[in-house]
């Protein structure tokens, strides 16, 4: 189950950072909170327009770290809340997860589907 506070953050303005590790070390890419959708089985579905390096890294090591937050959501100590998500990822280029995002984002070339292992509120 995705925490309610995390769901609230995903509906607000904010930047998402996605970290992967490949043969040549770490790599980060960004997207927007509002682009993320949640599948029926609580995976994060993130549209990938480019993310070619991220895709290469996920093929090498499917572990990802994701941070996201919003100043518009009340956190533990006042304005602003954020999360650190640890999970496993895969790139999907066909099927329901792909079709769902393609209907929202015409520029989509793949869906980055993330199974959450942990979601920890950081502030």
Please provide a written account of the structure.
- There is one protein chain.
- The chain has 123 residues and is of the alpha+beta class.
- It has a single domain (4-121), classed as Electron Transport, Fmn-binding Protein, Chain A (Pnp Oxidase, Chain A).
- It is built from three helices and seven strands, in the order αββββαββαβ.
- It has helices at residues 4-10, 52-60, 96-102, and strands at 15-22, 25-32, 37-38, 44-48, 63-75, 78-92, 110-121.
- A seven-stranded antiparallel β-sheet has the order 2-1-5-6-7-4-3.
- Strand 1 (15-22) and strand 2 (25-32) form a beta hairpin.
- The chain is globular.
- The chain starts with a helix and ends with a strand.
- The model has no long low-confidence stretch (mean pLDDT 96).
Radius of gyration: 14 Å
Low-confidence stretches: none
Determine the structural class based on helices, strands and strand pairing: alpha+beta
DSSP strand tally = 7
The helicity comes to 10-25%
Number of domains: 1
Per DSSP, the total helix count is 3
- What composes the largest sheet? 7 strands, antiparallel
Look at the structure and name the CATH superfamily.
Answer: Electron Transport, Fmn-binding Protein, Chain A
* CATH architecture call: Roll
User: Average pLDDT across residues?
Assistant: 96
Order of helices and strands: HEEEEHEEHE
Pfam family, one: PNPOx_N
Protein name: FMN-binding protein
Domain Pyridoxamine 5'-phosphate oxidase N-terminal: 2-101
